UniProtKB/TrEMBL annotation:
InterPro entries the UniProt entry points to: ABC_transporter_permease (IPR051393), MetI-like (IPR000515), MetI-like_sf (IPR035906)
Record protein name field: Carbohydrate ABC transporter membrane protein 1, CUT1 family
Annotated ranges, domain ABC transmembrane type-1: 85-293
Localization, UniProt: Cell membrane
Length: 302
C-alpha cells in the first residue's frame, strides 16, 4: 500500500479508537452519576411533584382522595393564620441574615495561629451539632420568668415565650446561636483558600483592616458568602423544631411559621391536601430567593 493511502487509513483507525474511548468515558460517567441521579429523582423530584399533585386534593390520609382543584389554595390565601405565618417567616428571614456577618466576624477572630485555638473553634462550633430540641429546651429555661438566667440578669422575669410581642424574637435569637456557628465554619473553610499572593501584594500596597477585608478578602469569599446566605435563607424558611419545642406556635398562633402551620394542619387536623398546598407555597418562596441570589452571583462572576 502506498504512503498516500496508508496515512488516511491510520487517521481513520485513530478516530475510531478515540471515539470508542470517548464512548467508554461517557458510559463510565453515566454509571457513576446514575446512583446519585436515582437518589435525587426518588427522594427530591418525586416528593416535590407528589406534593404539588396532592395540593389539588382533599385527603385525610386514610379515606379516598377527592379532587378539589384550587380550593386548598383559595382557602389558604383567605386564612388569617397563613398571613401571620408568612409575616413570621419574613421576620425569621430578615433576622437570620445576621448569621453570615456574625459568622464571618467570629471566623476572622478565630483565623489565627495561636496555642489552643482548635479547642476554642470546637467550642464555638458546638451549638451547631446540638439537637434543635436541646437548644430549644436550653433557651426555654433561659427565658423562664420564675427561675431562668434572663431573670437573674435583668432582676425581674419577662414572659418572653408567653407574650405575643416577644415570642418570635426570643425563638429567633435561640436559632441564631447554632446558625452563626455553621456560617463560622463555612467562612473558616473559605479563609483557608485565600490567595496568599494577593494578600501579600495588598499588604505591600499598604492595605490593612477594613480596606483589606473589603477589597481583597471579601471578593475571594464570594462563593462562601453565597453558600452561607442560601443555607441561612433555607434555614429561616424551614424553621420548625425550635417553634415546636419552645412555643408550639403560640401564644394564639403568634409565633407560627409556614412549616409549623403545615405540620399543624397535617398531623393535628388530618388535612393532608391543605398541608401540601402550604408546602408548595413555601417551596415556591424558597425557590424565588435561591434563584435570585444564584443569578446575582453568576452575574457578578461574569
Amino acid at each position: 500500500m502506498s504512503e498516500t493511502l496508508r496515512a488516511p487509513v491510520a487517521r481513520a483507525k485513530r478516530r475510531r479508537k478515540l471515539s470508542a474511548t470517548a464512548r467508554q468515558q461517557r458510559v463510565a460517567a453515566f454509571l457513576f452519576l446514575a446512583p446519585a441521579c436515582a437518589m435525587v429523582a426518588i427522594y427530591v423530584a418525586w416528593p416535590i411533584l407528589s406534593s404539588i399533585a396532592l395540593s389539588f386534593y382533599s385527603w385525610d390520609g386514610m379515606t379516598e382522595k377527592t379532587f378539589v382543584g384550587f380550593a386548598n389554595y383559595v382557602e389558604l390565601f383567605h386564612a388569617p393564620t397563613f398571613y401571620t405565618a408568612l409575616k413570621n417567616n419574613l421576620l425569621w428571614l430578615v433576622m437570620f441574615l445576621l448569621a453570615p456577618p456574625m459568622g464571618l466576624a467570629v471566623a476572622l477572630y478565630l483565623n489565627q495561629a495561636v496555642s489552643g485555638i482548635r479547642v476554642v473553634k470546637s467550642l464555638f462550633f458546638a451549638p451547631f451539632v446540638l439537637s434543635g430540641v436541646v437548644v430549644g429546651l436550653m433557651f426555654s429555661w433561659f427565658y423562664d420568668p420564675t427561675f431562668g438566667l434572663l431573670k437573674l440578669i435583668l432582676g425581674h422575669g419577662i414572659p418572653v415565650l408567653g407574650d405575643p410581642r416577644y415570642v418570635s424574637f426570643g425563638i429567633i435569637f435561640a436559632a441564631l446561636w447554632p446558625q452563626t456557628a455553621y456560617c463560622m465554619i463555612l467562612y473558616l473553610t473559605g479563609l483557608t483558600t485565600l490567595n496568599a499572593e494577593q494578600l501579600e501584594a495588598a499588604r505591600m500596597e499598604g492595605a490593612k483592616g477594613w480596606a483589606m477585608l473589603r477589597h481583597v478578602v471579601l471578593p475571594q469569599l464570594r462563593p462562601t458568602t453565597f453558600m452561607a446566605i442560601v443555607v441561612t435563607i433555607i434555614g429561616a424558611l424551614r424553621s420548625f423544631d425550635l417553634i415546636a419545642v419552645m412555643s408550639g406556635g403560640g401564644p394564639f398562633e403568634s409565633s407560627t411559621v409556614l412549616a409549623y402551620y403545615m405540620y399543624d394542619q397535617a398531623i393535628k387536623y388530618y388535612r393532608i391536601g391543605y398541608s401540601a398546598a402550604i408546602a408548595v407555597v413555601l417551596f415556591a418562596i424558597m425557590m424565588v430567593y435561591i434563584v435570585y441570589h444564584l443569578r446575582r452571583m453568576l452575574r457578578t462572576e461574569s
